[in-house]
Amino acid sequence: MKLYDAPWAPSPRRVRIFLAEKGIEVPREVIDLRTGAHLTDDYLRINPRGAVPALELDDGEVLCESAAICRYFDALHPDPPLFGATPLEIGRIESWTRRIEGDGYAAAVYVLRNTAPAFKDRAIPDAALTITQIPELAARGAIMWEGFTQALDRRLADREWIAGGGYSFADITALVTLDFARAAKLVPPEGLTQLARWHEAAAARPSATA
Q1: 122: in domain
Q2: CATH of the domain at 173
Q3: How far apart are CA 206 and CA 192, in angstroms?
Q4: pLDDT in tens, the chain (210 residues)
Q5: Which of 58, 89, 92, 122 is the most exposed place for a label (fewest CB within 10 A)?
Q6: Measured between alpha carbons, how far is residue 126 from residues 17, 115, 120, 143 in Å?
Q7: CA-to-CA separations, 169 to 82, 93, 106, 173, 187, in angstroms, rounded
Q8: Is residue 36 in some structural domain?
Q9: Is 82 a member of any domain?
Q10: Residues 177 and 199 in one domain
């Protein structure tokens, strides 16, 4: 088994935080995105999309999406139950994870990939596609971001962690999203005290530096 990793990319970080919370160690190979190692023939044979992370299993099968990789390890090592232990917990965590991905992470991706020169003709993370940048998507992403952070602040007004109960995969996803958004020059609006309190607590966990 081998995890193809990249130190500063958000999706691999989500897997690393998850593994750290679980206490799982996996052999890793670092893919240098700055030098284009993810677009080489060797890596494209692992993941034809040229994206990270990728988990190569002992039988040669490869899992390529960060949430899928975390689900795989959760099935192998169910404790602590970061995806929930009861049907209601599972539903809440899944609901908020999808909302964070669809409203927050997508907003940051829209802004970054449609403005940063490094993503010229690569506005979608797929090595097989040439996609030009669309400035209007960046503008929409900025609007989405403001609404997302305000909604998350309201959600945290009466609970320590996003899905209620303990720290979960939804919190991991939100932490990675908020930190990644800085690369797109997106920060929460001023005055979101509950979100700031939550972020301080999430970032203070040892797993956050994984």
Answers
A1: yes
A2: 1.20.1050.10
A3: 24
A4: 999 999 989 999 999 999 999 999 999 999 999 899 999 999 999 999 999 999 999 999 999 999 999 999 999 999 999 999 999 999 999 999 999 999 999 999 999 989 878 777 766 676 667 778 888 999 999 999 999 999 999 999 999 999 999 999 999 999 999 999 999 999 999 999 999 999 999 999 999 999
A5: 58
A6: 24, 17, 13, 25
A7: 5, 7, 17, 6, 21
A8: yes
A9: no
A10: yes
Residues 127 and 59 in one domain: no
Q: H helices within 77-192, ranges in order?
A: 87-99, 106-113, 135-155, 169-181
From residue 74, alpha-carbon distances to 9, 47, 90, 127 in Å are 22, 22, 12, 29
| Residue entry with tokens 């509950």 | 194
Structural domain contains residue 81: no
Instruction: Please give the structure tokens belonging to residue 77.
Output: 């090592």
**Pairwise CA distance, residues 166 & 182, whole Å:** 26
Query: In 3D, which of 99, 14, 8, 113 has the Cα closest to residue 55?
Result: 14
The enclosing domain of 69 has a CATH number of: 3.40.30.10
